């Protein structure tokens, strides 16, 4: 990747700006991401309430944050694949399917962690 020429605080501020743009784009264009953000907003207070200790709370909230991370990466994969063309290609389909599978594993991770801690 080419050097942007930004260093120090400017580089950090630019990185923050790009990250915020990514969050906005995901929220605007990805229904699953919106649903997961709302789930996070509801579930974090529940995790703080139901978690018996810091480890429980960290696992419960961390699993939700991990789900958002995986969803962002899956959305990025889908955007890149769609950008390269709309014709069907087995590798493009495989990439999208693997991204979807990663989201499914992250959802299962949330469910299992919450079940283990709450039951």
TrEMBL record:
<keyword id="KW-0472">Membrane</keyword>
<keyword id="KW-1003">Cell membrane</keyword>
<comment type="similarity">
    <text>Belongs to the bacterial diacylglycerol kinase family.</text>
</comment>
<keyword id="KW-0443">Lipid metabolism</keyword>
<keyword id="KW-0067">ATP-binding</keyword>
<keyword id="KW-0444">Lipid biosynthesis</keyword>
<keyword id="KW-0479">Metal-binding</keyword>
<keyword id="KW-0460">Magnesium</keyword>
<keyword id="KW-1208">Phospholipid metabolism</keyword>
<dbReference type="InterPro" id="IPR036945">
    <property type="entry name" value="DAGK_sf"/>
</dbReference>
<keyword id="KW-0547">Nucleotide-binding</keyword>
<feature type="transmembrane region" description="Helical">
    <location>
        <begin position="58"/>
        <end position="77"/>
    </location>
</feature>
<dbReference type="GO" id="GO:0004143">
    <property type="term" value="F:ATP-dependent diacylglycerol kinase activity"/>
</dbReference>
<keyword id="KW-0812">Transmembrane</keyword>
<dbReference type="Pfam" id="PF01219">
    <property type="entry name" value="DAGK_prokar"/>
</dbReference>
<protein>
    <recommendedName>
        <fullName>Diacylglycerol kinase</fullName>
        <ecNumber>2.7.1.107</ecNumber>
    </recommendedName>
</protein>
<dbReference type="InterPro" id="IPR033718">
    <property type="entry name" value="DAGK_prok"/>
</dbReference>
<keyword id="KW-0808">Transferase</keyword>
<dbReference type="InterPro" id="IPR000829">
    <property type="entry name" value="DAGK"/>
</dbReference>
<keyword id="KW-1133">Transmembrane helix</keyword>
<feature type="transmembrane region" description="Helical">
    <location>
        <begin position="98"/>
        <end position="117"/>
    </location>
</feature>
<keyword id="KW-0997">Cell inner membrane</keyword>
<keyword id="KW-0594">Phospholipid biosynthesis</keyword>
<keyword id="KW-0418">Kinase</keyword>
<comment type="function">
    <text>Catalyzes the ATP-dependent phosphorylation of sn-l,2-diacylglycerol (DAG) to phosphatidic acid. Involved in the recycling of diacylglycerol produced as a by-product during membrane-derived oligosaccharide (MDO) biosynthesis.</text>
</comment>
């Amino acid at each position: 990747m080419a050097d942007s020429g930004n260093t120090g605080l400017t580089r950090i501020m630019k990185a923050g700006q790009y990250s915020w743009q990514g969050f906005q784009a995901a929220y605007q264009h990805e229904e699953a991401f919106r649903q997961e953000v709302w789930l996070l907003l509801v579930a974090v207070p529940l995790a703080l309430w139901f978690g018996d200790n810091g480890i429980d709370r960290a696992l419960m909230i961390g699993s939700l944050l991990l789900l958002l991370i995986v969803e962002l990466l899956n959305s990025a994969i889908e955007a890149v694949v769609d950008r390269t063309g709309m014709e069907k290609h087995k590798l493009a389909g495989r990439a999208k399917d693997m991204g979807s599978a990663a989201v499914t594993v992250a959802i299962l991770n949330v469910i299992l962690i919450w079940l283990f801690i709450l039951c």
